Amino acid sequence: MNALSITFIGLQTADTFLTMWAVNHGFTEANPLMAPIADSWVSVLVKVVPAILVAIGLARLTRRWPRTRTVATVGMAAVVVFMVGILTSNFMEMGK
Questions:
Q1: Could you list the pLDDT tens digit for every one of the 96 residues in the chain?
Q2: Is 8 within 8 Å of 80 (Cβ atoms)?
């Protein structure tokens, strides 16, 4: 679970900084909610800080209620796969 949480935080961080770089190099942010802040450090607060809080929360949850470990692990694995897809899509879009 810890490895998945660290991977999730790393992917969110990579997505945030890749988006900041892309917007500052002429690309546009497709998400209308993120577009106004995509090129600023506020996006780090909006995306990376919650990822860290989710990882900490899941760690505490699974420590307190060990039966939730399987569900939390499957959920985090799904989120990691989703984020890999997002980053892959971003790289493919930048390559056009």
A1: 689 999 999 999 999 999 999 999 999 999 999 999 999 999 999 999 999 999 999 999 999 999 999 999 999 999 999 999 999 999 998 887
A2: yes
- Residue 8 is encoded by which pair of tokens? 């999730």
Domain ranges of the chain: 2-94
| Main-chain phi, psi angles of 46, to 5 degrees | -80, -30
CB atoms within 10 A of CB 34: 16
The closest alpha carbon to 58, from 67, 68, 48, belongs to: 68
For residues 28 and 35, the answer to whether their CB atoms sit within 8 Å is yes
CA distance 43 to 49: 9
In DSSP notation, 29-64 reads -S-TTTGGGTTSTHHHHHHHHHHHHHHHHHHHHHHH
pTM: 0.89
